[in-house]
User: Fold this.
Amino acid sequence: MKIMKKLLPTSTAGSLPKPSWLAEPEKLWSPWKLQGDELIDGKQDALRLSLQEQQHAGIDIVSDGEQTRQHFVTTFIEHLEGVDFAKRETVRIRDRYDASVPTVVSAVSRPKSVFVDDAKFLRQQTKQPIKWALPGPMTMIDTLYDSHYKSREKLAWEFAKILNQEAKELEAAGVDIIQFDEPAFNVFFDEVNDWGIATLEKAIEGLKCETAIHICYGYGIQANTDWKKTLGSEWRQYEASFPKLQACNIDLISLECHNSRVPMDLIELIRGKKVMVGAIDVASNTVETPEEVANTLRKALQFVDADKLYPSTNCGMAPLSRSVARGKLHALSAGAEIIRRELSN
Ligand SMILES: [Zn+2]
Assistant:
């Protein structure tokens, strides 16, 4: 595959802000401002803009900025059968905050592809490598009330099969890296090791493109910021999943690093994997300086071989303003360039 001759290829973990004419900015689950054909056109226009902003900032591996989805988990689930969005129950998401969620009422299935047309559209716009994010099985089940399978594990296996169907079609549409978002991996450690990684491997089964898992401490929303305050001086959550992840078939592991209390030496536990190092804090409106980005990457280089280091953001930037997100994209590129020059000396 064409990835990636350039050293330290940059990318984002996922979402980017939407234009204010498409959805209310700086908000999760923001409702669409357009309808019908106008909404379809608006989403495509936003995707083009999002791509252009990444290109202007010099981002090497580009994405759709998740412009066509309201939320990284919910939008995928909306396209499935077996989930009743009118029947809602309040559940505790990631043991952290209560949310009203839809109910699994019968066997889940994917009647047609979810993001494949969007991926084809993005593929038409650029020759750069494309990364596409999907929710991971464990994070999906954690966003639902299940009155049918009555087993988190069983439902996760069903979602893994569905995700594998979608991933294979995304690969055929020309996506170079398929990423599964699993923030739940930082919470349910026993389940991660019992069946979380196994269901992830089911989701990537048979793929020839590269595959990634993104594990973070969540968007910069209040519930997550409050949770982080309870985690103490060292965040060692990754330690629980890294040994098994190191041994699994996934190619890249995307992590939150900059401004977090994750001890950088934990990355040693996944030595051999490509590591997307989060060098941009998505929970702050302060735009990093290129030197701050470079510092984070320099620290990571003690534990990741240079040819396996992928500078990235800690998480998605959907809740940030467009100008802050733009500034952060530029800082990411400039910081990576500082380290590239150091490595070539
Ligand atoms: Zn994230």
